[in-house]
Please model this.
Amino acid sequence: MKKVLLLLCASFIALDARENPFRPMVDEHVLPISTNIPQKVEPFTHAKISLPDTARIVTNVIVEYQNLDGSIEKAVQPINQGVDWHVPITLSHHLHKEPARGFETVGKNEFIHFGIMDKRLKITTKDGLIRHFMMSKPYRVVLDFARMSSFQTHAYSVNKAPFKTIRLGNHKDYYRVVVELDGQYEYKIDTDNGVLIEIR
Model:
């Protein structure tokens, strides 16, 4: 009797097994997509929110946003003010753009020149770029250039978003440029005519 009961339980367990145990139990259309392909998203300018006729007080504004790593977070701004539901609420984001000029010089010496314009940093030098990478806390772009030279470490204060400071330091067989940023960003580098760093 015990053998029959054991055999019966085993058959019920086998019936509950999935055909492919490696297939996720959650529908694949619900799972978030992970990709290395950058998404092209238009910059946010404005949005209008119409409230129902029962709305009288705006208590909070909640903005849900996506971080660089793909995670989703919320920012809450308390308001607690009366509202006329006839007039839509407008959320806007306007960037104050100055007239286009050339790159503004923020530092230079006899073998390197730094110029910034908006979110771009142009490094003009005859020295070859060996490597570049990003470090965190604080976020900074690090670039190494080939040159046998001797000089003291120097820092150029920039304080124009997203750039904070540019430090130039001497090492054996190369010198290092450290571009400190005011937050977490991605960067793109172009080496066609000098070095152009674009912060995104």
Notes: The chain has a mean pLDDT of 84.
